[in-house]
Amino acid sequence: RGDLESQIAQAESDITRSLAQDSLVASSHDTLARVRQNQYRLDAAMTALAQALELNPNDAQAWHFQGRLLIYSGMPERALAATHRALEISPRDPLRWQFFHHLGFAYILMGQYELAAAWCQKAMVVVPFWLTARHLAAALAHLGRMDESRAALKRLAELWPKPLAGPLHGKHITRTSNNEVYLSLTRQHIAMGLLK
Q1: Are the C-beta atoms of 53 and 82 separated by less than 8 Å?
Q2: Which pTM does this prediction carry?
Q3: pLDDT tens, residue by residue, 124-146
């Protein structure tokens, strides 16, 4: 399959060709936004996603992705509205656990640990996901709820038995962001919570 960089370059080539043939397909702009995010070009990703949402303002997944991009851009407060919009459009979405997960993620980066824990717990009920367990453990630790935090860490180890890389545990399956504000918030609210 080749290395990640060549896969991203191929995806960029394919989606650019698709958009040249028809620039009015919302999902093509959404795909371009995802390619740009993987290139760490978050402003370009936001531009492409804005075009997707202009063409299809009722796409819950696009609204959710906008919320994720805002988190990765170091703007978790702005991510809340986009992610809540996704939930309004598709309250029974099969991937709603991801909406819950990213609401929890945004709240933890804002230092609102009670809300972060509540949304992470809601996500874990729908689909237990290792990254949600990590965020939940950090939020609970910040709240001084150490027994619950340890239980979330135990669940994390069950869901992802491989050692996590680095102090941020950020070297995982997908690329997210190299935005300094985002990285600083992640260190402050997640890594420091996990170190308690």
Answers
A1: no
A2: 0.90
A3: 999 999 999 999 999 999 999 99
